[in-house]
Automatic annotation (TrEMBL):
Matches recorded under Pfam families: NAD_binding_10
Top-rank taxon, per record: Eukaryota
Protein's recorded name: NAD(P)-binding domain-containing protein
Source species: Capitella teleta
Ranges of residues in domain NAD(P)-binding: 36-235
UniProt cross-references to Gene3D superfamilies, sorted A to Z: NAD(P)-binding Rossmann-like Domain
Length: 248
């Protein structure tokens, strides 16, 4: 009789634990931090994340920059992407970080410009992630054909890159840093699109290729790039990879 009572209690305990796990699993909400959220691609990442009912924390210099987006799942934090302590505070409770930083203004695209918007904030981001419990997923936006490759089209390699060599060089510094020992604990994905447009999101699957270049048109919408970045987080794909993306 005692054994029967014990068995019933044990079964009840298992059922309760199972129900609790299912409840948490079903109600688990992705929480992402977005850096570079005020840019055109960053806003796409934020808006699409909110559409997926994710919790979103954006780190901005000016809180007024997100007055036009009102959502109970959006948290706006004033911070500095060049400051590790500032980022660490913003990353608390997050499951992943998405970085859409990039140079602003034509002066930062000139060959002699001093550009560090990719590499230096990335170092601070990784340091903050390494000091945030349970946070190691990072998706970084750079660009296609940053490094020489036989697959790179002539136009990209010999015409476009020399013109914008300053930001491209900083993209390379960022990518090299992610592949270094300092980032051994970071599950990164580097999204490498071609020229960005403000066109709509497409419903077709993107062309993806590990490395520098993916076959396809020279333009891709920011909406499609944002969708790819979020899918990498949601589906846990392309970990520790540099991925060129394109529309078919």
């Amino acid at each position: 009789m005692t054994d029967l009572v014990s068995l019933k209690k044990y079964r009840k305990c298992l059922i309760l634990r199972s129900v609790t796990w299912d409840y948490r699993h079903i109600n688990d909400v992705m929480h992402v931090a977005v850096i570079g959220a005020t840019g055109a691609t960053g806003r796409q990442v934020v808006q699409q994340s909110l559409t997926r009912k994710w919790s979103v924390t954006v780190i901005v210099r000016n809180q007024d920059s997100f007055k036009d987006i009102v959502d109970e799942n959006l948290k706006v934090i004033v911070g500095d992407v060049y400051d590790t302590t500032s980022l660490r505070g913003a990353f608390q409770g997050c499951d992943a970080v998405l970085s859409c930083l990039g140079p602003r203004g034509l002066s930062n695209l000139l060959p002699w410009a001093n550009v560090d918007i990719y590499s230096e904030p990335l170092r601070c981001t990784v340091q903050a992630m390494n000091n945030t419990h349970g946070l190691n997923r990072l998706v970084l936006l750079t660009g296609a054909c940053t490094k020489a490759s036989p697959q790179n089209p002539f136009l990209f390699e010999w015409v476009l890159k020399p013109i914008i060599r300053a930001p491209v060089a900083d993209m390379v510094r960022a990518e090299d840093f992610l592949e270094s020992e300092e980032c051994a604990n970071i599950n990164y994905t580097v999204a490498k699109p071609k020229n960005l447009t403000d066109g709509p999101m497409t419903e077709i699957d993107l062309v993806t290729a590990e490395g520098q270049y993916a076959e396809g048109p020279s333009f891709i919408s920011r909406a499609d790039v944002a969708k790819f970045m979020l899918n990498c987080v949601e589906k846990e794909t392309w970990k520790r990879k540099l991925v060129a993306i394109s529309v078919p």
